[in-house]
Amino acid sequence: MNNRVYFFDTTLRDGEQSPGATMNLQEKLRLAHQLEVLGVDIMEAGFPASSPGDFESVQRIAAQAGDIQVAGLARCVAGDIDRCWDAIKVAKNPRIHIFLSTSPLHMQHKLRKDPADVLKMAVEGVKRCVQHTSNVEFSCEDFSRSEPEFLCRVVEAVINAGATTVNLPDTVGYAQPAEYAALIDHVIRNTPNSDKAIFSVHCHNDLGLAVANTLAAFKVGVRQAEVTLNGIGERAGNASLEEVVMNLRVRHDYFGLDHNIITEQLYPSCRLLSMTIGQPIPNNKAIVGANAFAHESGIHQDGMLKNRETYEIMTPQSVGRTESNLVIGKHSGRNAVRNKFESMGYTLEDEQLNLVFEAVKQLADRKKTLHDDDLMALVQEEVYRT
Ligand code: KIV
Ligand code: ZN
Question: How far apart, in whole angstroms, are the C-alpha atoms of residue 170 and residue 147?
């Protein structure tokens, strides 16, 4: 089986659907450029039929793009598909991405159609796309709550009609990793022509499982992951690109999968998004949060100073950040305090360290963490006072 995972970034589409994450044209163009620098394979630039503004931004992104594939989203109806194509056709590598619900709940209440009509619409939609391009993705919306046998029929039919990527989303973030993987495995094994398409997942984070579900899907043959920077997206968001990528890198021994993402560009990309939409990255966010490489407890700091692998499974540099941060606070040990002062240019005798260490503990009881300025004032006060 192919070991290459394709990263499909939907920050500019599903991500922008996140409340408060709206971006203007210039901001989208800047972010689109950064996604290329990051090494994303496919970027979903927007949903052209949804508004004239979206159409224009997708078209401008498509025009600016280099070799990256540029996808536009469309409902499974001719008007949307043709509009989508009009927006993306200037790209070097355009892709039409259509979606249609396959779950009983969505078919009955949202589409008000029976399964036979849905199957017909899916095939007609893909055929319409194929008139424009051979790069066609079909999404079974609400896949994780759909009937397995119906899914196999839909997937077989859309591949026969020309879909080259089949996306199996957990639209409402309902799936559990083992259960999701088992359903995907069932569909892949029981669809006769499944070897003719790349399977993809698109996981929402309503139960906090979007990354876990994405990773579980790789284990049963999925080779495209739909993700967003910082995990932004509808409701609780989508699987976060930086977390999925670093799982594949740090646990290459477990997954054995390769990709094109330049991991050193992860932090710059996530920061750019955060600054663009004015939403700070939470301090405890994996990979890119302020605390992801910060160590406060004395035991951890001591371990880090002896061998960083004791408490770090990846280097900050590998995700585009600078040095790890030994935060001086009330849990810090003598070794970390000495080391911190050395890094600030103060070499302390044992006696001096004793004085400073006591003062650090007292101050840290009052303040949560100590900044370099606090420490500098303290060393001046305790050591250089006389
Ligand atoms: O969550 C979802 O199912 C989607 C589809 C359009 C892929 O965003
Ligand atoms: Zn989605």
Answer: 14
Distance (Å, whole) CA 209 – CA 228: 14
Residue 386's pLDDT is 47
Give the ipTM of the model, two decimals please: 0.99
How far, in Å, CA of 321 to CA of 214, rounded? 25
Using the predicted structure, report yes or no on whether residue 385 has a pLDDT greater than 70: no
Judged by phi (left if over 0) then psi (alpha if -120 to 50, else beta), residue 221 lies in left
Ligand 1 centroid vs 142 CA: distance in angstroms?
8
Evaluate: CB of 141 within 6 angstroms of ligand 1: yes
Q: What is the pLDDT of residue 297?
A: 87
What ligand is nearest to the CA atom of residue 71? 1
14 pocket-lining for ligand 1 (C-beta < 6 Å): yes
How much of the chain, in percent, has pLDDT values that exceed 90? 85
The ligand 1 atom nearest the CA atom of 10: 8
Do the bridges between strand 136-141 and strand 165-167 make them parallel or antiparallel, or are there none, so unpaired? parallel
Global confidence as pTM: 0.91
According to DSSP, the residues that pair with 199 across neighbouring strands are 166
- Whose alpha carbon is nearest atom 6 of ligand 1? 99
Q: Which residue has the tokens 């396959």?
A: 102
Please report the DSSP string for 173-234 in residue order. Answer: S---HHHHHHHHHHHHHH-TTGGGSEEEEEBB-TTS-HHHHHHHHHTTT--EEEEBGGG--S
